[in-house]
Specification:
Layout: H1 19-28, H2 35-57, H3 87-93, E1 97-98, E2 101-102
Antiparallel strand pairs: 1-2
Length: 109
């Protein structure tokens, strides 16, 4: 059985993956990747992990969490009627209607 452990950020080791580690991860995930793909994924994943390291290095103490970077409210349209009531017109087109309701065949007995 294979176990994989990423280096911790505080170990002073840059988080980088090599082809062998990517191949192990692919095996654990039951993914088939070729050697050229493993090299490409190793480079791409290492760059992603490097970005995560940079983001973790930023001091965020005292920064309030927010849902959106812009403090803008939602743009809402005015709640006004824009179309006329055409209920009777549409009910007249229905194959069967009664008391303002569409009648449909019974599906479940």
């Amino acid at each position: 059985m294979w176990y994989f452990r990423l280096p911790e950020a505080d170990e002073g080791i840059p988080m980088a993956l090599n082809r062998q580690e990517v191949s192990r991860i692919a095996h654990l995930a039951r993914l088939h990747i070729t050697e050229p793909e493993a090299a490409l994924y190793a480079e791409t994943l290492s760059r992603i992990l490097g970005l995560i390291e940079q983001m973790n290095a930023v001091d965020t103490a005292g920064v309030a969490p927010m849902a959106h970077p812009n403090e803008a409210g939602l743009r809402l349209r005015a709640d006004v009627v824009t179309e006329t009531d055409q209920r009777e017109k549409f009910l007249a087109l229905a194959p069967a209607a009664e008391a303002g309701l569409y009648l449909v065949p019974k599906v479940i007995e």
